[in-house]
Protein translocase subunit SecY (Chlorobium luteolum), 443 residues
Amino acid sequence: MKLTESIRNINKIPELRQRILYTLLLLFIYRLGSHITIPGVDASAVAGASSSHANDLFGLFDLFVGGAFARASIFSLGIMPYISASIIIQLLGAVTPYFQKLQQEGEEGRQKINQMTRLGTIFIAALQAWGVSVSLSSPSSFGHSVVPDPGFFFSLSAVIILTASTVFVMWLGERITEQGIGNGISLIIMIGILAGFPASLVNEYRSLSLGSKNWIIEIIILAMMVAIVAFVVLLTVGTRRVPVQHAKRVVGRKVYGGGTQYIPMRINTAGVMPIIFAQSIMFLPSTFLSFFPDSEAMQSVASIFAYDSWWYALMFGTMIVFFTYFYTAIAFNPKEVADTMRRQGGFIPGVRPGKSTADFIDNILTRITLPGAVSLALIAVLPTFLTKFANVTPGFAQFFGGTSLLIIVGVGLDTLQQVESHLLMRHYDGFMKAGKTRGRQAR
């Protein structure tokens, strides 16, 4: 079989094999740490109370950290503070001249930006850790006390441990990116999401076995979910090819150029980043409101940000559309593409080189980004509709729609593309018959 042969080829390449094993080792360390409880917390008491918090801050964090928050683990914050810091730095890069200058300074500027992102991660992690410690210490958060000895020293130790653990998870992600395979930060988020799949599957089966659901309706829902997964894959790999003609050049007795190439402009240029960015921003109000567990006014406001509320779905979808355009503008610069084409003697048929080419590419990018952004937003809020109208358990719905599915598909395809590149570079066939993953051609 083609898949079996590709796996054997991976084993024949020592560098690729070592990268994959190194990645798996670090991901195992991350999963192991998610089962270590914060000192001073009664783990059994937290586990017994976690089911009542499936749609608030508890469930929101728990989705991305693979149940670490429900276990009051040292990795409860996961990698989300780093994502939030990255969002802030990128926003500053779009509006602040100082950060724009750093972005143009090459490797030195990138190192300074990374250092600022790490410092921002520490600050945000400490803030969120304080909110977690307050929430754990308050009996009203869980109906009973989960911290036998709450107080200043518990809060201080919890903040230090959670912040240090977040920095360690950030380090794991950076090591995976540099020495492993795939994007480490994205893989950590994906592995946390996948960790909850077996339990969600069991809960859905229990609901069926107890007779609370109809088998026929469930089969129809599963068929719809399969179609949704296929649509997400098509959305992720879909491209709009722009033809580029190269002028012929005569060098000596040889003629160069004259062929036609294509610029593959992806419908979803931003990938999974708009989803991650929007989700990170949605964490912040819940984090702030967790500081006031005894305030009825604050808790009524917190209900607006509940995962199954209509206001949450509306705000979440709107932010995804915004971040899709924002991140696309950062990742794809039509002016740079037009300048590169002109230097290489290329042109788009019927379009003048220079500014006209840049405007033409920008117009196409704007038009194909709109349906991509709207599709991302609709898929992201789909679990809200499934849980309200189709009686699907929230945990199970996440894997066939919403943020979880988009992240799993996007990160999985990107990681597969990197493995594919290693195989093709050493003259081995990839996972697909054509030698490349369809729709993932190098850009």
In short: The domain at 2-425 is CATH 1.10.3370.10 (Preprotein translocase SecY subunit). Strands lie at 239-246, 249-251, 254-256, 260-266, 346-347.
